[in-house]
C-alpha cells in the first residue's frame, strides 16, 4: 500500500513532460555518438549528457551513428576592468571551438561551424580561493552549453535531412 503514492507521483511526473536537468530527447536512431578531438572536460560533459538521455559515447567511429568532430577548441581569459591597485576586478572567459557532424557512413551532415561562448565574473581580491572555484564552475557550465548547442544543431540538421 505504501508503494501506490510513489507510483502515482512517478506517473504524474512522466505524464507532465518532466525531464532530469541536462537530459535531452535524442533524435530517433541517434543513441551512439563518437567524439573526435575533444578535450577531457568536453568529453565528460558529452558523456554525462548522453547518459542522462539514454545515449552512449562510443570509443570507435565504426559503432557510432553520428560522429562529432571538434577542432580548434580553447578557452581564453581576459581582464575586463581594473581596481585602483591595478588588479583585475572582472574577467571575461571566452570558449571557442569549431565542430562538424558526420553520419555513420562518414558523410558530412554539417560542415565545420564555429561556436563561441562568453562569460564574465567579478574577481574579489579578498576571496581568491572561492573565485578559483567559481571560475571552475563557470568553465563547466560553458562546456555544458557547448554540448547543448551541438545537440540542438544536430537535431535541427537531422530534422531537415531528406529521408
From TrEMBL:
Q: What terms describe the molecular function in GO for this protein?
A: lipopolysaccharide binding
Q: Where is the signal peptide?
A: none
Can you say what this protein is called?
Answer: LPS-assembly lipoprotein LptE
InterPro entries in alphabetical order = LPS_assembly_LptE (IPR007485)
A GO CC annotation given for this chain: transporter complex
Q: How does it assemble?
A: Component of the lipopolysaccharide transport and assembly complex. Interacts with LptD.
Q: What does the UniProt keyword field contain?
A: Cell outer membrane, Lipoprotein, Membrane, Palmitate, Signal
- Member of which family? Belongs to the LptE lipoprotein family.
Q: What is the top-level taxon of the source organism?
A: Bacteria
PANTHER family reported for this sequence: LPS-ASSEMBLY LIPOPROTEIN LPTE
Primary localization: membrane
Topological relation to the membrane, as annotated: Lipid-anchor
Q: Where, subcellularly, is it found?
A: Cell outer membrane
What gene is it encoded by? lptE
Note the Pfam families from the entry.
LptE
Function of the protein: Together with LptD, is involved in the assembly of lipopolysaccharide (LPS) at the surface of the outer membrane. Required for the proper assembly of LptD. Binds LPS and may serve as the LPS recognition site at the outer membrane.
Does the keyword field hold Lipoprotein? Answer: yes
What Gene Ontology terms for biological process does this UniProt record contain? Gram-negative-bacterium-type cell outer membrane assembly; lipopolysaccharide transport
